[in-house]
Design a protein that fits this description.
single chain, about 170 residues, mainly alpha, three-stranded antiparallel sheet, 3 strands, elongated
């Protein structure tokens, strides 16, 4: 004699419930395609910085990344948007440092700056860690030496950290 709640039926019900819940959990954790597009664009740009990179290639890849962000912006939450802007800030400043580097290299291969350099002072206010790339401090009214390659490394490393944080955001529910 079988009852409605026989052990076989209860077992089947438990299995059905378990697999249904598992499928729903997988669906709810599927990556957000807009966020994935943004993080892939950032990864592509940051991969370019692993070796010697020309200003033109960097600028082009940065513009592509900004276009991807612009297309995906509406679907992202405020925390994601804040992380994206933070990373873009580092990457845009890196572009500016690259431009500065092209203009400031002297015949000895050094990069001279003065305390009145508006670009550097602006970067130092926004990102105080960039002061660490000063090789020789400028005396009052004189010039010092700055290492833009170190500054670029600082900026790209921080951008990469923010992108990794953004990827972690991808796994959480809103």
């Amino acid at each position: 004699m079988h009852t409605f709640f026989s052990p076989a039926r209860l077992f089947s019900f438990v299995l059905l419930f378990y697999f249904s819940f598992s499928v729903l959990t997988v669906w709810s954790e599927a990556p957000d395609p807009d966020l994935t597009a943004v993080t892939n664009a950032f990864d592509s740009l940051l991969k370019l910085t692993d070796g010697a990179v020309s200003f033109q290639n960097y600028q082009k890849k940065l513009q592509e990344t900004e276009a991807t962000v612009q297309k995906s912006q509406a679907a992202l939450n405020d925390e994601q948007k804040a992380l994206i802007e933070k990373s873009l800030g580092y990457l845009r400043t890196a572009r500016d440092v690259m431009q500065w580097r092209m203009k400031r290299r002297d015949k000895d291969g050094n990069y001279q700056y003065s305390e009145s350099d508006k670009d550097l002072n602006g970067w130092f206010v926004t990102y105080p860690f960039l002061r660490s790339a000063i090789m020789e401090k400028a005396p009052a009214g004189g010039t010092g030496l700055y290492d833009p390659d170190t500054a670029l490394t600082f900026l790209w490393d921080r951008a990469e950290q923010v992108v990794e944080e953004l990827k972690g955001e991808k796994k959480e529910e809103p």
